[in-house]
TrEMBL record:
Stated name of the protein: NADP-dependent oxidoreductase
Gene3D superfamilies, alphabetized: Medium-chain alcohol dehydrogenases, catalytic domain, NAD(P)-binding Rossmann-like Domain
Location of the Enoyl reductase (ER) domain: 22-354
PANTHER family given in the database record: HYPOTHETICAL OXIDOREDUCTASE (EUROFUNG), ZINC-TYPE ALCOHOL DEHYDROGENASE-LIKE PROTEIN C2E1P3.01
Pfam families: ADH_N
Database matches in SMART domains: PKS_ER (SM00829)
InterPro entries: ADH-like_N (IPR013154), ER (IPR020843), GroES-like_sf (IPR011032), NAD(P)-bd_dom_sf (IPR036291), Trans-enoyl_RdTase-like (IPR047122)
Amino acid sequence: MTTADPTTTPQNEALFLLGPGGPFVVRPTPMPTPGAGELVVRVRAIAVNPVDAITGPLRRLVSPWVRFPTVLGSDVAGEVVAVGPDVTDLRVGDRVTAFAAGQEKARNRASEGGFQRYVTVLERVTTRLPADVAFDRAAVLPLALATAAAGLYETDQLGLPVPTVGAARADEVVLVWGASTSVGMNAVQLARASSYTVVATAGRANHDLVRSLGAETVVDYRDADVDRQVVAALGGRRLVGTVAIGKGSLGHALRIARSTPGTKRIASAYPDPVTSVRSRIERLRGVHVTAIWGGTPVVSPVGPAVFRDFLPAALADGRFRPAPEPTVVGHGLEALPTALQTLRNGVSATKVVVGMDA
């Protein structure tokens, strides 16, 4: 194991969630020691996600395997301070953003939750940052990126090829419904990086933003004839799949898939009981509907293909940009409950971020 300056003894602390309904408590916790393929990151910025803001019985429903007290948080950015065995690409001192996988069933460890000063992460879902990407901007990426990548690339989802240089698929289209969400912005950029044309939906105020990320056409999802507009934008081209994000998106995606040539595959990022029921019904009609789990790339080949093989160079040369823009609401672990309430109150085309001490 390689670590930072051994003459200093850093102190770790975390924001613990004591039970499914709370409360949150900041308290000391041991400094993590990285195992094989793991890194320890000193956290400089943390983004919060809707899954972090869940409370009460719904938390047990979403992640019944989690042991309490636990440490939430998936999105971190900071500096590598220790590397474990079998780490090949990253070194102590590297600036990174990473998917903190403590809430994933395969990991399920408080030491891997992002809401702490020093966190263990997996190299396979960690990205080295260019010097010009600030930590608060980088922290918006991990979970939204992983969710978009899961929907686009996992073999049981849309199953598309990961980004490659020189591919030409201009006559094939990916539909991103809900493109101004965090997941949607990443899905638009990844689909373009895989050389697909992107047709998207978003509120009218965010159309220019979504186009700037690579969408060819953006339709207002609130228009009464939105489905007809999307089909017209496809122009008879092959629809290779839809990433459907947000409440009500699945019904629109189904109607569009039935009306267009293509694979009839829909990856839904709004998992609810209706999705599983409709997926069974739609299979009989030749439409393949699946629910996306954003943590799947933690254990699948998609994780390193996107976080390690694609993203560092794409961030460095500007092919991919961190999106959405961060809204920093405070500093320190004590600010995280306020950040979660800000998220519950509702945000648009931004991600709520908490900074940590410099």
